[in-house]
Amino acid sequence: MSDTTSPLETGKKQCSIWVALIPLIVMGLLLGIGYGVYQIRPQVLLVAAAFITGGLGFLLKFSWQDMEQGIVAGISKAMPAILIMLCVGILIGSWIASGTIPMVIYYGLKMISPQFFLVTACFVCSLTSIATGTSWGTIGTLGVAFIGIAMGLGIPLGPAAGAIVSGAYFGDKMSPFSDVTNLAPVAAGSNLFDHIKHMLWSATPAWLIGLLVYFLVGLRFKASQVESESMTLITETLKQNFNFNLLLFLPMAVVFYFAATKKPTIPGMLISSFIAAILAVIFQGASVTEIASAINTGYVASTGVEQVDQLISRGGMMSMMETQLVAFTAFSFGGIMQATGMLAVLLDRVMKFADKVWSIVLTTIASSVVTALVTGSSYLSMIIPAELLAPVYKKQNLAAKNLSRIVEEAGAIIVPLIPWSMAGVYITGTIGVPTFSYLPWAIMNYVSVIILAIFGFSGFTMAPRIREDETQIGS
User: Which end of the chain is more exposed for a tag (fewer CB within 10 A), N or C?
Assistant: First the structure.
């Protein structure tokens, strides 16, 4: 999101590559030890990294005004996407209050087929994650229920967990409500809906390959009648607490219409939320105060069933604050790197290798995977490579949506396959299946990376840059 040369470098001596590497080494140590071992929040560690980088900037004879300008410039470029993230929080809260998201989950669960358990588990988890925008929420609720069914049917837990994880993360990255999916275009400087549509080229084939494998493997399992108390409890609770009607699909139709016609994103989201608020009053009997609370701090379910409450208690503008703090602190670090010329030195070395499309793609994949392995963080495995490589894509006339696609699929989606990551620990602790048991079966997560590498070598779907401001829809 920065230019390859800094306007603040004028008249100042360029630092060496070894000096320029110090901030990255420091940040890697802080995140690897602080986040990976002690689980300190990443925004705190990024502030520390920015502070140390700023101290190095002073030693290089840069003033605070120079570095402050770099911070402000970095954050200002991300503001349009950050505003979209706020609107996503509003959208989730209003859609749950209206009954739109609960209705999608309800009918998704009704699609369960005992004969095709793995395919169904993957498909329903995908649908639920798209509707809720949370892979963790899907795994922590429906995933637990599906694992219980698998145990009852005698289905191996490795394939069952892999199908759940693949479905949950596919839906997460295809959902405009996902914090990860919103953060990737913020980091790369692309547009949310362009980013999602561009991921379809790699994510959909990977997801379909996974479904095919699940179908073929599932043929070995003896079909039997699935009777799951957990599933019945979830569907019946949703039905009892929400009034379903076809009109509840209207808020979704509005968002899809604005995306398909390439109209401004934020007005579309706000109109959809306004319609959802009206539907919440009509069909759910919600008060204005309850709707306002859902929009601000998120919808809070009180169905009396913990699984359901956990699944649909989410949304609101405040739910996006932590993600935005990570973005602000990461861009502050990047802004100082840019302003002091250290980023330009690193990019000069990167450009010597990443001078072809295939080498740029491989560099991006490698950077994202390494960052994921070091930090175990979905956020940082996208932000750090995107901030570093955005100028490379710009110089090579490649659209920013190429970069945002790669960092999400090679970074954030790989994180749950890492045993020491927060996602890996969460999944294992929640469904009771070790990471290495479900890893081979989480097919979508790693096949999409292989497809990206193939696209890099062939040039297929590597979109050219067509406008200066790529945060506008249709870029």
Answer: C
Inter-residue long-range contacts of 351-355, CB under 8 Å, 24+ positions, other chains counted: 351/4, 351/392, 351/395, 354/389, 354/392, 354/396, 355/396
Place of tokens 């549509």: 197
Whether 372 contacts 432, CB under 8 Å: no
- 261 class by beta-carbon count within 10 Å (0-12 exposed, 13-18 middle, 19+ buried): exposed
Taking only the tens place, the pLDDT of each residue in 365-403 is 988 888 887 667 788 788 888 888 888 899 889 999 999
Beta strands in 78-189 (DSSP E): none
Query: Using CA atoms, how far apart are residues 324 and 319, in angstroms rounded to an integer?
Result: 10
Residue with tokens 């890893």: 439
pLDDT of residue 177: 84
Which one-letter amino acid corresponds to residue 218?
Answer: G
CA distance 159 to 153: 13
Which segments of the chain have a pLDDT < 70?
A: 1-13, 77-78, 81, 112-114, 141, 148, 152-153, 222-228, 259, 374-375
Give the span between the Cα atoms of 413 and 429, in whole angstroms: 18
Give me the sign of the Cα torsion angle 357, 359, 360, 365. Answer: positive
Collect all residues with Cβ–Cβ distance below 8 Å to 220 and sequence separation of at least 6. Answer: none
